[in-house]
Amino acid sequence: MGRYEGVVHDVRSNAVTLKTPIGMISILTNAHCLKPFSVVVNSTKKFPGFEIEEGQDVVIGDERIEIPACEFTVDLSQATDLDLSVEIMQSLFLPTDLDIRMRHVMRVIESYGTSEDMSSLITDGKTNAACDAIRPMLAGLHEAVREQELDACARAAEKLAGIGNGEIPSSDMLLCGYVAGYAAWSAALGRSRQRVLSITRALTGAAAAQTTESAAALLLQSGEGLVSEDTFQLLRCIFSDASYQTMVAYANKVATAESGNGSDILTGIYLAVTKQLG
Fold it and tell me: Which parts of the chain fold into alpha helices (H)?
C-alpha cells in the first residue's frame, strides 16, 4: 500500500518491532503466532545476529521490508495474507454450554497464572499490587460497557491503563483481552458492528493515551477488533459448537504465546464474557 519509512523500535531474539507512520509493525520468527501488523518469517538465526539495532532506519514497500544499515531484508512477495479481525468470523452464536466453556478457560488461567499477572482477579491465586489497584475499578468498567455509555467507557479504561510492570503493563493486556471478548460476544449476539466499534475504540483510545508506546499500539489494534491468530481461533471456538478439546488447545496457546502476558489476555476475555452474561 505504498512506501513508508520508520525506525527499529525494539530488538529481541525472536522479534523486531518497527515504529512507522502506520503504527508498530513486528517481524516475528515462527516461534510466535501471527499478530496484527506483523509478518512471521522462517529463520533459525536470532535477530540480534543480523546486527539489527534500535534506531536504525527502516524502509517498507509493497513487497519488502528493509533495514539498509545491516542489509536485512524480508521478502513479502510470496507472503500469505491473513485477516485477524473479529469482524470476519462467520456464524458465531451463544452456545447453550457457554458457561461450561468459560469454566474450561478458567482452568487454563489457573494453570498458567502467577503472582505477577492479573489472574488472581478471578482465581484464588496470590494477588499483587496491580491486581489490588485494578479490582475496585472493574465494576465501573463492566457497567459502562453494559450500558454502552461511551464517555463512561473512556473514563473507566483511562483509570485502568498502564498498571503493572514492563513495556506492556498487565492491565493493558487485560483490557486487550476484555475488548476482544466483548467484540466476539457482541458478534455472536448479532449486534451492530459499528456500535460495537464505537465502544471498543472509546475504551482503547482512552487507555492508549495513558500508557507506554508499545502498549498503546496493541490497544489501538484491539479497538479495531484485531487479535492474534491464536486468540482469533480461541474466540471462534468459544462462540461455536467446537469441541472443548480444541478450544482448550487454543487457550493453552494464548496462555503461553503472548510474550508472557497470555494469562492476562485470557483473564480479560473471561471477565468480558462472564460479566456481560451476568
Answer: 98-112, 129-134, 138-147, 150-160, 170-189, 193-208, 213-223, 229-238, 244-257, 262-277
pLDDT tens digit sequence for 160-213: 999 998 889 999 999 999 999 999 999 999 999 999 999 999 999 999 999 999
Give the DSSP letter string of 196-241: HHHHHHHHHHHHHTTS-HHHHHHHHHHHTTB--HHHHHHHHHHTSS
- Taking Cα atoms as reference points, which of 2, 14, 20, 5 lies closest to residue 217? 20
Q: Please say whether the dihedral angle defined by the alpha carbons of residues 117, 119, 121 and 126, taken in this order, is positive or negative.
A: negative
Output the CA–CA distances (angstroms, integers) from residue 95 to 77, 148, 276, in the order listed: 41, 23, 15
Give, in order, the Cα–Cα distances in Å from 147 to each of 80, 140, 151, 158, 180.
40, 11, 11, 17, 18
The predicted-structure confidence for 38-51, as pLDDT tens digits, reads as follows 999 988 889 999 99
